[in-house]
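A further point concerns the way the authors explain their paired sequence and structure data. An entry of this sort, consisting of the sequence and the corresponding backbone structure tokens, reads as follows:
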Amino acid sequence: MKIAECDKFTAIAININSLQAHIALLLQYIASNSVIHVIVVTETKLPKNIHNIPKIEIANYELYRNDRNSNGGGVAVYVHTSFKFSLLYTNTEIWCGKPGFPEYIIGEVHNKEISVLICAVYRPPHAPFTSGTSFIQNLVNAIDSFQHVVILGDFNADPITNFADFSFVKTFAFENSLHIVQSEPTFHYAGNSSLLDLCLVNEPEKIVHYNKTDCPFVNGHDLLSVKMDYAVERTQPVYISTRDLFKLEKSNVNEKLLSIDWLGLLDSVSIDEALDKFYTEYFKVVDSIAPVRNVKVNDRKHGPWITPEITNLQYQTRCAFKDFKKYNCKEKYILFKKLQKLVDDTITEALTEYHRTRIQRTPANKLFNELKNLGLISRKTSQKINHSFDDINRAFADVSIDPHCRDVNELMQKLAQTPEPLTELFKFTKIECDDVRKAISSFTSNATGVDGLSPKLVRITLPAIIHFLTEFFNLSLTKSYYPLLWKKSLIIPFNKATNPKTTHDYRPISISCFLAKVLDKLVYYQIEKYVNYKNLHDPYQSAYRPFHSTQSTLLKFVSDAKKKWTIEKSRSLSCSTTRNASTRSPTPNSFYIFLNWDSRFNSANGSHRTCQTGNRP
């Protein structure tokens, strides 16, 4: 996220009574409000042994869970990705029946500016605060170490119906310099209301705003929201540069491009100059129709599945709750509960229909990514890069330098002195337009390199530039020259470790120019054809060969191992016939060696890699 001016630290809490059942309501609340840094959820009712539940993931948030079982209890904390979370304490008691013990997550939410102690707690009704549990002791130990403290959750300590428990909470707050923020009821049911959900802070003077929802959010519980005067860098939506390709498809862009003498550009002094002129003329036409514009990502204030009918139902629900509070009659409460359940069911159905529509419109080759975008399957969360780009670039450049390896020029001279084999030497053949079309259609990624020319843009304008590209590729192969621009790549560091500690815990992903990848593919086609014709493949090679993969390798390994075992077994049986019948024949043994190639490129000579990826033909 892009960082701008300071904002205030915001946390919310809700007893959600099953996170999976009411996640749509929570998503709507998050989408319709400004950035929330911490979300405390109690009574999540998540199964303890299932760790990856994609439907409860929220974009831009990390989820930390402490589950009891799917029948009740459990707490969870969503932490915004602008913060990091360090777990300090959590309950270890095993649920053996009522009344149980407090369930909690105590941790540190921190970034470069501030550090806040967050405690998410759910105390089952009548559960002990101290006997048989270390909740209070752990919380006191944590409070003593932090300047900022925020405690949120369902304490089930109503001052009217359970005065002794509420008195304990008040005494605990007083002894640890904590302030109970709210005094109004936070749980509502027919004929009565009670104060169950609490918010405690150690700096009441820094409360900028405290609020609870106008009517119960889920199952009679209000959603609590507290904004603290802690300086937090405000996160702004990311802007991306894009073109209106749909507008480009409907325009006469190819007619304008066909009016340019593209083949005349090949008369330039050098290949690099011809390529520069191509980009200049090409983008001059494209920009005149669909210029690059900055678009704000996720600039939506509500869930796209929220319809005006749902908004109207929510308004009716709030009005029904106000009538219930005003007249305090059972009929009004029953009407409110019916409307609230109708809203919950309608939002869930609308979200399901939204997902179904998105999936039905998605092509099969993009379905997996769409499911990840919708949060229906787990996706890897992006980790912050904790090292400077200069250090990472230095690590990427130095990792493959081996001073004991021979220089690439020495190897090339040796190859030049090698007598020519009797077989026919490899030579590049002329590239045709159909070859270019085939190469372009083979790419599924839409990644754009440093030249700014995306694969989608090339496919739209291909009828106008196909002949130029074909002749340009032939010229590059004829002169054995690879354009300088195409040797440049965008390098993206990806994590090799979950929590990278050094620069060697990243691996580089290079995004080359699309036309460079097309030329590489054309060269690959010709070399692969030659290798297949001459039968030069190693019989055990499975990579980069048609109809070969890790699966075929595994099948061959299992088949060879079974054959080996069968042969050894038959030998042992034949030997046993010549021995005493009482002598037991030995069991055949086979030994296999597996090599881990995770760091296979770390010892490769850097000049060799430059030869392979830079000084191409």
